[in-house]
Specification:
Blueprint: H1 3-16, E1 30-32, E2 49-51, E3 54-56, E4 60-62, H2 70-86, E5 89-91, H3 96-100, H4 106-114, E6 120-125, H5 135-144, E7 149-153, H6 156-161, H7 172-182, E8 187-190, H8 198-207, E9 211-213, H9 222-228, H10 234-238, H11 246-256, E10 262-265, H12 271-279, E11 284-287, H13 289-297, H14 299-320, E12 333-336, E13 341-343, H15 344-347
Parallel strand pairs: 4-5, 4-11, 5-6, 6-7, 7-8, 8-9, 9-10, 10-11
Antiparallel strand pairs: 1-12, 2-3, 12-13
Helix pairs in contact: 2-4, 2-14, 7-8, 8-11, 12-14, 13-14
Bound molecules: flavin mononucleotide.
The site of flavin mononucleotide has 25 residues, from helix 1, strand 7 and helix 13.
């Protein structure tokens, strides 16, 4: 099967089947400490922020998904229109397909045409550095969409369960480190639904990674997706919920890498999830499958979904006493222990 056909198959599986992990993200164990004295006007809540030095209207990322096929172009077009309209950041799907077939570059570059001033992230699998790809290819991915940063995705479980998987991850970190030194834009390390451990975060920071997207368990499961492509899905079912729940991964990574900008993703489904992510130390929250599903209905459905997310985020901020994204530094997120709520900082 060609990569283009595989990409479309992934999209169709995601739209037609339940590909959700069975384990929750962990955000339901947290609550934002509310205040009855917000000392602000709800209508004046400010969602603008910066990430890696670039301005955003809202602290939300359309996580990397599509490109490389006609279906991918359709989704990239609608998603980029939303990024342009609401000032979200957006990642494109893996650009490996366009490195192999330059005639497909347009399925990615369309995003920059539609969102000329937005923050866009290029995307390539880290393991590709062991399969003939190097700095020139990464640079090509960045240039293709005039990206502000390159996301390198780490997807060990997906590769090992995928029929066509690239399974040799030996020596990857050294290559990532060399890439970080040479690439003229920041490199973001991203999982795809299994989360990073604190140990991973330490090693990635040492390697020179500029930001980490934890992409933990609780949302889309690649084991589930690949299971629908396999004739023998026993192993896929066993690994459906493999990894670290998103909230846990976020808190662990934040603790060991306090100065690395973080993106919380993997099962983020509501404005309150976004607010909790920001209170737990993320700079942005990333969402993939719900955006894809809304875009599959219509551009208007996607716009409505984003407006609801933004409204819910604003209400949560107002009721927690945060007037701006920067104010989250002073908002407590309480963790529900066995019998009581404790400040998340103590719960870590
Ligand atoms: C159809 C689809 C395609 C995806 N393709 C990529 C990809 O090419 N590169 C990547 O880093 N992540 C990819 N992802 C993973 C998402 O970016 C995200 O990490 C994951 O789906 C968890 O977020 P969610 O629970 O909000 O869906 C893809 C996800 C979906 C649903």
């Amino acid at each position: 099967m060609t990569i283009q056909a595989r990409k479309d198959e992934h999209i169709r599986i995601c739209l037609e089947h339940d590909v959700q992990s069975e384990v929750p993200t962990g955000f339901s164990s947290y609550t934002l400490e509310p205040t009855a004295l917000p000392e602000s006007d709800a209508r004046a809540i400010d969602l603008t922020t910066t990430f890696l030095g670039h301005a955003l209207d809202v602290p939300i990322l359309i996580s990397s998904m599509t490109g490389g096929s006609p279906l991918g172009t359709r989704f990239n077009t609608i998603l980029a229109q939303a990024a342009q309209t609401y000032g979200l950041a957006m990642g494109v799907g893996s650009q490996r397909v366009a490195l192999e077939h330059p005639e497909l570059e347009e399925t990615f570059s369309v995003v920059r045409k539609i969102a000329p001033r937005r923050v866009l992230f290029a995307n390539l699998g880290a393991v590709q550095l062991n399969y003939g790809r190097g700095i020139a290819d990464c640079l090509r991915c960045v240039e293709m969409i005039e990206a502000q940063a390159l996301i390198l995705h780490f997807n060990a479980l997906q590769e090992v369960l995928q029929l066509e998987g690239n399974t040799n991850f030996s020596g990857i970190l050294k290559k990532v480190s060399s890439l970080c030194r040479q690439l003229p834009v920041p490199v973001i390390a991203k999982e795809v639904g299994c989360g990073f451990s604190s140990q991973d975060a330490r090693r990635l920071e040492e390697a020179g990674i500029s930001a980490i997207d934890v992409a933990g368990v609780g949302g889309t499961s690649w084991s589930a997706i690949e299971g629908y492509r396999s004739s023998d899905a026993v192993l896929h079912e066993r690994f459906r919920s493999w990894g670290i729940p998103t909230a846990q991964s976020l808190v662990s990574v934040r603790t060991v890498a306090p100065h690395v900008p973080l993106i919380a993703s993997g099962g983020i489904r509501s404005g309150q999830d976004i607010a909790k992510s920001l209170a737990l130390g993320a700079s942005l929250a990333g969402i993939a499958l719900p955006f894809l599903k809304a875009a599959a209905v219509s551009k208007e459905a996607l716009m409505r979904f984003i407006e609801t997310l933004v409204m819910e985020l604003k209400i949560a901020m107002f009721c927690a006493g945060a007037r701006s994204v920067a104010d989250f530094a002073g908002v407590s997120c309480l963790f529900c222990g066995k019998n009581s709520w404790v400040n998340a900082a103590t719960a870590r």
